């Protein structure tokens, strides 16, 4: 849910765009740096045809920190950088921030940090020292919040840019503005105004800062909106905290009142009153004893300085709200990730033998996105509130439960006995046994979790949370619906995955990848009608890396895009070679990663490969894992486009994912593949036979061919044939083979080719 403040800012942006009118040819240039193609696509969509402060937005894209650095070295004329924290390395974004500020000296450029991995959040010192405008996780960066951050950053950029082109006082104004923005309270901010003004004018700080609070926010100073002196210096120091009506100097009182009422600055010989309107409706007046008349050039400098003061005042005057938002989730009212981390550190410091061992637990709602997509975000919000209430009813200690991401909760519990963690897991599981009733309808939800036991030997809060996160990821990879305890082997596995990441690009460049082919057999007559292309990786020393190890790593690292394109090209080349040779037409099945389906260029890439290889789309079958096929409407639209081009679409591993028949009906699939886990137990587990029979029935009712994977025995083949299954593949027929060996197998076992379809 978006807050009213987000909507208010959006209204301001839209009002600015309507009333100002864009200046022809003038744009705000933004640089988007992210390794996730979906972020590029969604951001482009959100900012399309938008105008802010009278200018259109022009977006330049970079997929890595290195690419962004190259762009900025050649062309630094950007107003804002939208920067991902974790890209080539966990701190690639932060390193780029240092380069921007220290090496490239781009002080006016505004920086908005975003991350999809909250565990790599930048330290407060980095945000402060390198002048970062905003930092948010991608999950909370709605369109309104994106526009809010951009509006603030662009306004800041326009002011700072004005400072940089000023002919006089440039360095002093920038230093003054930076000093103001580092102040963390309204009173401190106002004291800083007086100090910085004294420095700009080369006079002793002498004067006061006064605020007139808008009636709608008068509760901040309980004075009904009467002006109040927030800070004072020099001979006026005693006026700090005084209301304007209590000021004894009547001429001075009338001068200040006049500036506020007329909403204008006043320049007199030896005295200046600066009027600063606030976007929030509050006004500032600054009285400065200058001792001399202020000339036109200095007045222009003061106007620029006041613009920065106005921006800072809008931020600081809402500091109480900001503090609340900084530590609490707006939807549930629970502590957010920031407070969660602080609470862990505080509890570790208090940990003793009597208190027990602190357990840090992360919980993630399985398939929560399906609730949002299927039932709407309002229902999703209500479900999150219900989950929060149920967790808080079990863990009632203050700050025990936090909401640290969209559908992720954190729980902190003291365990006094070594085996108490088993009771903890049972308590969590019991929270989700009964369905949640939302708008009168029951919703069953499963939970995945990971936890770690903290001790004095590991005081690093972020490392503890990362370890709990590793356990959570392990639970999800293991099939979801589980709660795992962190094991040191998980860190070793992560280290191994990182090692694979570093070797993937080299392996592709050096030709270490190859394809093998496994035949697909029609159960009606035993003739091979197609094959599946399977990727293999052999290291230089001769050992093989298992596909279930390197393919997920390639997906996470983004290498799957180039690797998947290579696989499709090689498979098409072999298919055409066999088609035009002695083998004849043969359907070729190729696995497609969800990262490829999310990539905006995949459809064009697939079409280009077909043309280059002289392959026909009807001969190529693209296999998509069930859970990926059901992911979202964008993936569904891509699949429909591919189907429209003539590709055959197969749903892989059916029965293991989280899908609905209504969603399955929307997919333009032609083949349904029964997962090998059901095939293996066909002869020994009646439930596996029932599941296989159901899948065959569903597929045939939807007009799809049904193919069983992992067939290894004649008994399994006979059961599948009796159930009406159309086709099969597995070791019973042949193991995956290199291209030449596969061609010989085809010619030896089935000299008469048949069309690449199964009737």
From TrEMBL:
Domain EAL: residue ranges: 497-750
Coiled coil feature spans: none
Positions of the Response regulatory domain: 29-153
Alphabetized InterPro entries for the sequence: Biofilm_reg_signaling (IPR052155), CheY-like_superfamily (IPR011006), DUF3369 (IPR021800), EAL_dom (IPR001633), EAL_sf (IPR035919), GGDEF_dom (IPR000160), Nucleotide_cyclase (IPR029787), Rev_trsase/Diguanyl_cyclase (IPR043128)
4-aspartylphosphate PTM sites in chain numbering: 84
Pfam families found in the cross-reference section: DUF3369 (PF11849), EAL (PF00563), GGDEF (PF00990)
Protein name: Transcriptional regulator
């Amino acid at each position: 849910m978006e807050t009213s403040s987000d909507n208010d800012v959006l209204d301001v942006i839209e009002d600015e765009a309507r009333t100002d009118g864009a200046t022809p040819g003038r744009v705000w240039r933004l640089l988007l740096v992210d390794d996730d193609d979906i972020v590029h696509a969604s951001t482009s969509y959100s900012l399309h045809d938008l105008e802010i402060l009278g200018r259109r937005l022009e977006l330049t894209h970079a997929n890595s920190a290195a690419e962004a650095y190259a762009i900025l070295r050649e062309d630094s004329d950007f107003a804002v950088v939208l920067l991902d924290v974790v890209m080539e390395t966990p701190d690639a974004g932060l390193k780029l921030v240092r380069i921007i500020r220290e090496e490239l000296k781009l002080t006016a450029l505004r920086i908005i940090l975003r991350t999809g991995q909250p565990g790599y959040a930048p330290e407060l010192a980095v945000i402060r020292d390198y002048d970062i405008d905003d930092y948010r996780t991608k999950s909370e960066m709605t369109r309104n919040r994106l526009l809010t951050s951009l509006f603030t950053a662009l306004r800041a950029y326009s002011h700072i840019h004005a400072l940089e082109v000023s002919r006089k006082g440039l360095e002093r104004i920038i230093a003054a503005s930076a000093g103001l923005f580092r102040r963390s309270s309204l009173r401190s901010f106002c004291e800083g105004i007086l100090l910085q003004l004294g420095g700009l004018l080369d006079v002793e700080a002498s004067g006061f800062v006064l605020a007139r609070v808008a009636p709608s926010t008068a509760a901040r100073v309980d004075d009904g909106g009467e002006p109040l002196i927030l800070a004072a210096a020099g001979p006026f120091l005693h006026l700090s905290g005084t209301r304007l009506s209590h000021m004894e100097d009547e001429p001075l009182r009338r001068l200040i009142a006049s500036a506020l009422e007329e909403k204008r600055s006043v320049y007199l010989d030896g005295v200046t009153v600066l009027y600063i309107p606030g976007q929030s409706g509050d006004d500032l007046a600054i009285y400065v004893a200058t001792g001399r008349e202020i000339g036109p050039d200095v007045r222009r400098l003061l106007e620029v300085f006041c613009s920065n003061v106005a921006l800072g005042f809008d931020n600081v005057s809402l500091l109480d709200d900001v503090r609340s938002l900084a530590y609490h989730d707006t939807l549930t009212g629970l502590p957010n990730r920031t407070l969660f981390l602080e609470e862990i550190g505080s509890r570790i410091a208090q940990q003793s033998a009597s208190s027990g061992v602190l357990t840090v637990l992360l919980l993630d709602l399985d398939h929560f996105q399906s609730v949002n997509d299927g039932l709407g975000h309002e229902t999703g919000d209500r479900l999150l509130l219900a989950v929060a209430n149920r967790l808080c009813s079990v863990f009632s200690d203050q700050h025990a439960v936090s909401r640290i991401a969209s559908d992720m909760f954190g729980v902190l519990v003291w365990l006094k006995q070594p085996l108490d963690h088993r009771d903890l897991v049972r308590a969590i599981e019991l929270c989700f046994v009964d369905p949640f009733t939302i708008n009168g309808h029951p919703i069953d939800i499963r939970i995945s979790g990971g936890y770690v036991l903290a001790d004095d030997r590991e005081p690093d809060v972020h490392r503890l949370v990362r370890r709990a996160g590793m356990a959570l990821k392990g639970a999800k990879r293991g099939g979801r619906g589980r709660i795992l305890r962190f094991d040191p082997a998980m860190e070793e596995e992560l280290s191994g995955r990182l090692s694979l990441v570093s070797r993937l690009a080299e392996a592709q460049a050096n030709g270490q990848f190859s394809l093998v082919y496994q035949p697909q057999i029609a159960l009606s007559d035993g003739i091979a009608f197609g094959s599946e292309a399977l990727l293999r990786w052999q290291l230089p020393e001769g050992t093989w890396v298992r596909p279930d190890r390197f393919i997920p790593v390639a997906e996470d690292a983004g290498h799957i895009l180039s690797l998947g394109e290579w696989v499709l090209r090689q498979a098409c080349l072999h298919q055409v070679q066999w088609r035009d040779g002695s083998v004849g037409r043969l359907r070729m099945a190729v696995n497609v990663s969800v990262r490829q389906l999310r990539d905006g260029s995949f459809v064009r890439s697939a079409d280009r490969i077909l043309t280059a290889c002289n392959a026909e789309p009807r001969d190529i079958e693209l296999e998509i894992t069930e859970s990926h096929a059901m992911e979202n409407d964008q993936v569904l639209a891509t699949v429909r486009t591919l189907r429209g081009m003539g590709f055959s679409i197969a749903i892989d591993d059916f029965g293991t994912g989280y899908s609905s028949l209504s969603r399955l009906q929307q997919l333009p699939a032609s083949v349904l593949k029964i997962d090998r886990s059901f095939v293996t137990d066909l002869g020994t587990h009646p439930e596996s036979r029932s599941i296989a029979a159901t899948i065959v029935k569903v597929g045939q009712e939807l007009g799809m061919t049904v193919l069983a994977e992992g067939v290894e025995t004649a008994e399994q083949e006979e059961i599948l044939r009796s159930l009406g299954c159309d086709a099969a593949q597995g070791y019973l027929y042949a193991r995956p083979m290199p291209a030449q060996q596969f061609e010989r197998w085809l010619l030896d076992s089935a000299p008469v080719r048949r069309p690449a379809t199964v009737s």
